[in-house]
Predict the structure.
Amino acid sequence: MNKAELVNVIAEKAGMTKVDAKKAVEAFIEASTEALKKGDRISLVGFGTFSTTKHPARKGRNPQTGQEIMIAERTVVKFKAGAELCKGL
């Protein structure tokens, strides 16, 4: 499901216009992004939890040349599915 399909489903299930549903989806994405950038966790009971973790800098290899390179530290988003979500699959 892509963003447009999600907007359509939300509009239909919530009985709202597609314009309002799109605003709601975009507001959720924006709020979630801001919270994760601050290092906060987002916990949606029954759905799952979004959090961030740091991957430390490490050595790697260029697969084409075999040359050793340094891979910079980075922050990544993790998602852990909730029990209700897993049970419904």
Notes: The helical segments are 3-14, 18-37, 83-87.
